[in-house]
Amino acid sequence: MASNAFFDNYLPIAILTVIGFVFVAISLFMSRMVRPSNKTKEKLSIYECAEVPVGDARIHFNIQYYLIVIVFLIFDVEVLFLYPWAVQLKKLGGLGFLEMVIFIEILIIGLAYAWRKEALEWIQ
Fold it and tell me: Which member of 5, 32, 65, 119 lies 3.0 to 4.6 Å from 114 by CB, making a disulfide possible if both were Cys?
């Protein structure tokens, strides 16, 4: 009986997964068959807003941009954790509140470290 209930619960998920993969495969196959494939020098060239491309595309970017993005992502993820926590705060009680305070403190320590190392400065 237990294995029958297992299949009853997960069979629709398996069927929808297979249908999803088949749909994607058929869509990709049909788009490859229908689209025109006329590769010319113009089509293979780099497009930069109707400007003629100048120089190498592989230029060095300042590492500051990457550090700013990483700090932004960390705090963006923090906000994603804060929403469900705030909704369930009454159920979580004091322990849930304490855990979130510790989580926020760790992030603030990380921000202070980045600030002290001048990772957030634009001009140096």
Answer: 119
Predicted confidence at residue 105, as pLDDT, reads 92
74 domain residue, yes or no: yes
Domain with residue 21: its CATH number is: 1.20.58
Instruction: Give the C-alpha separation, 95 to 32, whole Å.
Output: 56
Name the CA dihedral angle for 70, 102, 113, 122, rounded to a multiple of 10 degrees.
40
What value does the mean pLDDT take over residues 95-100?
91
Closest CA to 74 of 123, 114, 117, 122: 114
Domain that holds residue 59: 2-116
pLDDT at residue 48, as a whole number: 66
